Every structure is written in C-alpha cells, then in structure tokens.
Records
---
Amino acid sequence: MRQSGRSTDVDSLATGLARDRFPLLARTIGDRPLHYLDTAATSQKPEAVLAALAHFYRHQNANVHRGLNTLAEEATEAYERCRRRVAGWVGAPDAAGVVITRGATSSLNLLAHGLEHLLLPGDEILLTEMEHHANLVPWQMLARRRGLQLRFIPVRDDGELDLDRLPELLGERTRVVSLVHASNVLGTVNPVAEVADRSRQRGILTVVDAAQSAGHLPLDFAAVGADFLVFSAHKAYGPMGLGFLVARPEALERLEPLEGGGEMIEWVDLESSTWAEVPRRFEAGTPNVAAAAAFPAAIDLIEELGAPAIRRHEAAVTAYALDCLQDLGGLTIYGPADSERRGGLVSFWDPLVHPHDLSTILDRHGVVVRAGHHCAQPLHRRLGVPATTRASFGLYTRRDDIDALIEGIRDARKVFAR
Ligand code: PLP
C-alpha cells in the first residue's frame, strides 16, 4: 500500500465515508471484491434511498396532483417534499423555481426549447469545448431550427478554460452562455460564478450544468449566480430517472414548455389550452414519483456527512489516484495537475493498452471504470485521442479501490507486452 503526501492527511482515505451504507459495494465480480470507480456515470445508492423507493411502491404508489384520496395525497406530498428539499439543499430562493425532470439531459432540452422564442436568427450561444453532449446537442438542434451561431470557449492544454478569450467571445449577439461546472472528462472545476457574473453584466442568460458537481462539490445556486442550474439525482446518490432545473420562478416564467399533456395545463379546449403556473407547466405527464420520494434520503446523507467533508475526501482520493497513476509512468493524464482544481475523477490514455481492452482486464480485477469518449467527442478530438479510461470517485471510494486500479493497469500492460 502506498503512503502519499497530501492524501494521507485524510483519514477517510482508508475507509471511505459511510461506505457500509451502500449495499451494492459489498458484492463481488467473479471472485474479486468490487472496486467501483464509475461514480461519474452513476453513483451507487445508499440503503436509505433503496428503502424509500420500496416504501413508495409498497405503501403509496399513486399518481400525483390527481386524486382526492389518502394515497394520492401522500404521493403528492412526497413529490412536493422532494422539490422543497432540493430547493433548500442547493439554496434556491423559492421551491417554485425547481422543475422536476427526468435528468440533466431533459433539463437542458427543456431549456434549449424553452428559450427558443426569445432568440433571433444570428444570435449567439456560447458553450465550451469541454461540454458533455447533453449540453451541446440540444443547443445545436436549437441553432439549426433558429439560425443561431454557436461559439466555444477553448480548453487550454492544462485542462482549464481559456477565459482570456471571454471578452471577445461575449459579443453583441450573445444571448445565452451554458457551461459545465465540473468536467466529466478533465475533472476541471470551472469558475462558473465568474462567468455568470461577467455574462450578467451584459444581460446574457447563464446556464450551469452541475451534473458532476451536485453531491460532490458544495453547490449553492445563489453563489453560482447563474440563471439556470441543472443536474441529475442519480449521480448524487439518488435514483435514476430524476433531475432538476433550478431557477428563480421569474426566470421560469420566460420559458415555453417543451412537453404538452396532463398536469401542465390550467384550462383545455379542443382548439387551445392555457398553462399551469410554474414549475408544473414544465412537468407534463406522470413523473417519476418514486424517485422523487426517495431522493431526499440521499440529500439527508450528503447533509449528514457535510458537503465540505465529501469534497475533502474526494479531493484526497483524486490526489492519491493522480500520484499513483503518475508513478506508473507512460500515461497521459488529462485535466489540471492540482486535485484542488478538479472534481473526483481522473481520465487518462495509456499508449500500451487501448481503453476498451484496459477496462475489460480491469473488470477481471473487480475494478469498474469507464472507457470511451464519455459523451464528449469534441473534447476527445481536442485532446487528440479517440478514447480515454476514466476512474471516478464518490464519498465511499477507498484507497484500496485505487490500489486495485493500479494493480489492474500493471496486469493489463503485462498482457499487452507479450
Ligand atoms: N452533463 C454532464 C457533465 C454529465 O457528466 C452528464 C452525464 O454523464 C450529463 C450532463 C447528462 O446527465 P444525464 O444522463 O443524467 O441526463
């Protein structure tokens, strides 16, 4: 076992935080213990979330906002409680500004559609070269429909955004800036508050994709200062099929709904309809009530451990992983060298073993990583590699997970050196 400078300062490195509350982490892969290093794809779920999901289906299972009966009232209360809990957790000024969606991707599509009527041909949307496809393709679709220009903040070789270019990129026609808080490939934590501030001074709307930061970095809507913040529950220890769009209610008023149907209306005639108040205007159809009923249990855990402690732990794991990977030699490691400047993940390229082969061999060691372009093809083109291997961490990650990763890479290199 390695002893590494900064990383040994954090006791939790040996044990993880609250690891025993995550039942899946006790399973094996073949005869090996599981080393789950794919939290950026989806986090594991604590027992309390699993219990809350089961509780909903065992005891409530009713649609929301529809029935005047005990089950429907309890289901509606659980659903609305989630909205209030999320608002409190991320410091949203008003629960009426929290739209419950299917995930970060749905939230971004909702936004790209919802803002369309405010934009004119020739207007510009500013993104970055490090965006996940979820924060790229919806804007491309909008640009195609509306005749808009997309512009991009470049990524520097050190994995940081080149913000020196911002004055020239924030032009007369820029209407929206949408950027990721913590990159799912580079790990870079972007200065979103600074970008939001500089955009606001010019009357430009800002969107922050917090898919990789919610549950991992302290997140405060007011401190970020963006108009819109989006994230998914499943990367923050909650269930799949649930996400959020957080805004001030007045900002939501400016959006057109994307989906029409039940629940989002006030009055319907055969020829036309009027919309319900925000945020329900954006919640057509039956939502994932069970997931919403269960997510507060994940927030409880995050708040019990404390966002700063989770951040400290994940930064320590990242520092340890960076040290170990660097010591292996021969790898190209992407993103900022300083673990304080990045979220809890490391992506790398090993010229000796393709990421797909590496991930297959790591699986034999019980080590689960992600190999590929991680839904960021333009960024990989910018990095000059077709794919990377990504190890990503959560509050439960331990030092032995990283040690197993390193042992697995050594083994893969032996196999491919033959
Ligand atoms: N944005 C970022 C930075 C992501 O990493 C992801 C998922 O990996 C998404 C958006 C999309 O999240 P979801 O698939 O939960 O909608």
---
Amino acid sequence: MAAIGFIGVGNMGGPMARNLLKAGHKVKVFDLAAAAVKVCEEAGATSAAGVTEAAKGVDVVVTMLPAGQHVRAVYLGDNGILKAAAKGTLFIDSSTIDVESARAVAKAAAEAGMPMIDAPVSGGVGGAAAATLTFMVGGPEEAFAKAKPLLEAMGKTIVHAGPAGNGQAAKICNNMVLGISMIAVSEAFVLAEKLGLDHQKLFDISSKSSGQCWSLTTYCPVPGPVPTSPANRGYQAGFTADMMLKDLKLAQEAAKAAGATTELGADAAAIYERYAKAGQGGLDFSGIINMIRDAGR
Ligand code: NAD
C-alpha cells in the first residue's frame, strides 16, 4: 500500500482521494478550502498544512486542481512540490489543463528526477464517486506502469495515450467532439420542433440512424427520450456549461499553437461563451438547446 499526498480535494479530487483510502492506501490531503479537507479527514485521511508538506514523506502525489496556472504554481519554483518531494516520488496530475503547461511541468519533473504523468479524467463527479473514471494518460512508460494500480482504484478505463501532454491532448480532442455534437443534436431537435416532428420520433429514428452519438443517446438535450439525461431535471449539472467552455477554449488554444484548423470547435467555443455570458454557465452544457431555441424566436 502506498503513502499518497493528494492536493486539491474539491468536487472531483475529494471522491477520488476517498477511493484511494477505500483501497487501503494512506492519504494525506491539502486544499485551500478547509471544508473540502474536513470531508476527507472524516473518511480517514490525514491533513497537511500546505502543498510542500503534502508532498513530503509520501511515495506518490496526486493533484486535482482547477487550471494550468494552479498546477504550475503548485509544482514549480522554490516553494513547489517538485523541490519539496524526495527523489523518485511519482507525480500524477489529473487536472484538465492546457497541453503547454502539462508539458512544461512534466519537463521540470523529468529534470528533477521525478517520474510524472498527466492523467486527466472524464466521467464527472458521479464517475469520481463510483471509481469508474476514464483516465487519459501522457508520460513515460515506467511512470504509467507505476501509476496504473492507483488509477485503477479511482477509475475503470485507463489508456496510455503517449508521451507527456498526450493525456491532455486526448481530453480536449474528445471534449471538442462532445461540445460540437451537443450543439448539432440541439439544433436538430429545435428544427424538428419547427417542422412539427415529435421529440420521441426523432430520437427513435436518429438513435438507430447515422445521427447516433453520445449527446443524443446518453445526454439527450430534451426531456423524455433518455430519462436519466439532465434535461429531465431542469438542466441541473452534470457537466456544467462553464466546464465545457473551459475545455473548448483549451482546444482552441492548442489548435492555434499546433496550426490545426478547427472551425466548428471555434464556433462551439463562441456559442458556449454566449451561453455563459447570459448567466447560464452553472447549468448542464446540454441546456445550450434553450439558447438555440430562443435565438429563433
Ligand atoms: P473544484 O473547484 O471543485 O476543485 C478544485 C480544488 O482545488 C478546490 O477545492 C480548490 O480549493 C483547490 N485548489 C485550488 N488551488 C489550490 C492550491 N494552490 N492548493 C491546494 N488546493 C487548491 O473543481 P473540480 O470540479 O474538482 O475539477 C478539478 C479538475 O478536474 C479541473 O481541472 C476540471 O476541469 C477537471 N474535471 C472536472 C470534472 C467535473 O465534472 N467536475 C470532470 C472532468 C474533469
């Protein structure tokens, strides 16, 4: 069993840390929010006074932070965890961040003699609680092999996507498909409404035809056809529109840096930005259908 430092125990990190405890590991947590730390302590974790203390005297450090700037701040510099940890400590960053920051931090880790992987997740808060997350991993083979048993305690599907940063690359490519496809499905349902075609009929046909996709069959943006989709509970998230916007912006940043043309990705980012600016960012991202419907009125 490993001694693990876990930094960032919010909506995702909290249940992930608790699953590591359940698997029998010793977990020491740190978060800027005292309430988040308390929930983990109640589940059997110890707490650290700061990020450097969380990285000392452990075999592994897991980080689950909001964005690239937080990851850089926690890992790098004189007060960073790469400096504080013992040589050979394994680092797992599961935050969703920009590819450039992921590669910069991985380079600093390699230079400091620390094995490190980027391992962003999909599956949301429900997947984190049920230990069914999908981990998309970038980094050296040896670091992946060392991390795999721990990832298996928190997730179900673990894929090594290549060298450092490739986990983040996989995450933003996947979520760009998701953002675009949710808008496409929403536009189709709104058009169907105008044409007098029933939601359920469109669903029955498209879910068995070439329009079939996850946004339609798992996360259908209208109430009825998929009873578990957020549309049936007033678009309560789920996966918020703000989170979708974050990932679409990361995809646009990466596309610009890599010289890739992603016109629909850019359109999707602009559409979600409008939705967030209209004050709806806290709702599930499938709520975008309501803005699309209203635009036609
Ligand atoms: P969250 O805001 O609930 O948790 C982040 C935590 O990090 C907070 O508790 C915050 O206090 C803490 N934090 C920030 N800076 C810190 C620092 N310097 N030291 C210690 N703690 C610090 O966010 P979340 O929903 O848990 O998301 C975490 C990451 O997972 C994000 O990158 C997000 O994009 C990604 N993600 C989220 C979901 C989801 O459905 N929530 C799904 C997939 C991926």
